[in-house]
Amino acid sequence: FGAPTPPLPKPAPPLPRSKKFLAIICHMTQKQIINRWLKGSKDAWDTAEKLMAAKKFDHSLFFIHLALEKIIKAVFIKKNNTFAPLIHNLAKLAETSGILLTAKQKSQLNEATEFNASGRYEDYKFKLYKKATPVFTKKWHQEAKLLLAYFQKEL
User: Fold this and answer.
1) What helix, strand, coil percent values describe the chain, rounded to 5?
2) What is the pLDDT, as a whole number, of residue 9?
3) CA dihedral sign of residues 49, 52, 54, 58
């Protein structure tokens, strides 16, 4: 019945992992892209501190996660010359980035990853809300400062 079905087109070749590729796709240099992620991390950290002062502890923890995620993605781009993976698991993201982690840091990143889901999904929000006491959140602000400083050294 009618003309034969044309063959499917060949898949596109894999995209190159290069600074030139990043610049072409984003119209930005690698340094500009990294700086954008770093600005986002600093903004998220500033928000986390303001939410802590406002006693919005669960929301503050969510923004701690966001600050950590963004700085790790900046490191990923610096080390790999390509876009950061679209994941929120901080330990996995750091390892994929080539960041050497101590067992304690990996454990901290795994715990902080829970703040992401807890900040987004209602089922988890109540668990985080109960956990996010002033003492717990203050402890996390201190730990996050150390982690952020460690990741900054990777840049």
Assistant:
1) 70, 0, 30
2) 55
3) positive
